[in-house]
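To: structure desk
From: M.T.
Subject: fold request, one chain
Message: Could you run this one when you get a chance? Sequence is below, nothing fancy, just the single chain.
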Amino acid sequence: MDIIIDFAFVIFSYLLGSIPTGVIISKYFFNVDIQKIGSGNIGATNVARTLGKKVGILTLIGDALKGIVPIILIRLYEPYPLNQPLIFFCSLSAFFGHLFPIYLKFKGGKGVATALGIFLMLFPFQTLLTAFVFFIIVYFSRYVSLGSISSAIVMPILVSFRAQNAYQIAMTIIICLFIVIKHKDNIHRLLEGKENKLRF
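Reply: Done. Structure tokens follow.
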């Protein structure tokens, strides 16, 4: 019975992670297909650039909640001791749901906001430090992508110092590795000096 419940948690996490927050907000409130404007990405950065900062923040919150909710539900279902393998698989399922959403033919975002939600729940102190790194880099470079890539490199290092088990380290490395991979086009544009800068 426990295996069935755990499996249901994992499936739920993936389906929740697959919900395209940016697409829903842009289509039903602005009658715009976010996949066809700007960079075509469904994440908060493209939404903010095309529809405004407030809408971008709303998208960021929605995508972050996809990583937060499964962990909250697991903690409510099994408060102590925490089921680390279940948290591992549910966190990855929510994250990969955002990257490869079943509702959008597996063409999703880059996972930064959903990863933020996961990390806030599991590693709040390390997440705040990484967020500081992100904002410093974005402020001086004006490249959101560079801030995201740098944060994905820093986060596993910080987690490795305070991780409670191998599941936490492995999950962080996997998530951050895929964030960097999903930014491959941004990396090419950064090297060529063609990446879009953030306007304050």
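Reply (cont.): Residues 2-192 form one domain. Let me know if you need anything else for the meeting.
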